[in-house]
């Protein structure tokens, strides 16, 4: 007997479900575009810190620059970027992070175009100053927006992409700068970042959400001027120490002035109704320790790549081109670790343990570079150390910022991001100056410099252990 069955029909999807699914897909697409905008902006900021270096000889020949003028092309960007991070991070909290991100991206584009079309030294230095100011405005705002737009489980993936952009951006600049300068001229190293910056200006308002900023308050102008001057003096002293030595009168004056200005800033903040940096934030042991981790970690990480570049050329007698190619494994390793291992580490052990593990791996890489015999050449003396260093940087850089920003009140995420970035920049400047001087002046200098960097990384890991349980 055959049992008749009704022909199978397709059940219609309820209109309510369709209405829910479509906006959900659109919302996911919008968030992914927003993530791309933020990550691209960070990539551009980090790219610009290194891409100009390779073009310096061409710029000097074309514009007939003096040695002092040549150094200002680099230092103008570093000084402005490091000096204004804290100020602009707080302004983002008060005026709106998305608004500050858009303004910073626009300012960065203006500076880039001015630098690309420069016909003399002052146009180029002016463009670099504007670029640095734009980067200081957009970077803490971007980090704050990332934390706010990607809460919960999505934050680990977003932060890993952010870290990958930071790691790859700096390394890519070295390679891209040489190719672009040789093919299209030095102006191209500036123009290559313009499309991403313009896209950020156009898309940010459409794809990024921002929490309502607080009620307008009086702006702490004395505090802003004092802390900005203190950071500028400190970074200037660190940069001067690398060029002229720590005992130079101008370096000592800059460092003493920075300490005095910092003391004045603390006094101002204690008696201001609406302080730029509420000192009660530092009652959080995790946040205050995190700022120390950022500074020490910046010294241990940033000095690494400068030391390795010098080591390859002076100890292994590589040409600049071959030294650049020898650094490629750091970019590849950093990218893979950030995208594959870091998200798993953040979910499994959290950012605090991740940064401690990363710092221990970084120290191991430094020690390998310090004591591996150069007679065995690049594959044995350098490559394993490079891989360890790149992995350690990837596992410790982003989690340090996450620790600082995640414990700050939501109304102060921009300020917290500025604190993290500013501490990292200052630490990087001081570490690079100190360890470069050791490498070039001490007997058996590279061994001493890499050992010193390893000691700083280990000390930072010990400091990180103090907040793991908390």
TrEMBL record:
Transmembrane segments: 33-56, 68-88, 100-123, 129-148, 160-180, 186-204, 224-242, 248-268, 289-312, 324-342, 354-371, 383-407, 419-440, 446-468
Location relative to the cell: Cell membrane
Keyword vocabulary terms for this entry: Cell membrane, Membrane, Transmembrane, Transmembrane helix, Transport
Ranges of residues in domain Major facilitator superfamily (MFS) profile: 34-470
A Pfam entry, by short name: MFS_1
Topology relative to the membrane: Multi-pass membrane protein
Gene3D superfamilies reported in the protein's UniProt record: MFS general substrate transporter like domains, Multidrug resistance protein D
Protein name per the record: DHA2 family efflux MFS transporter permease subunit
Taxonomy of the source species: Bacteria, Bacillati, Actinomycetota, Actinomycetes, Propionibacteriales
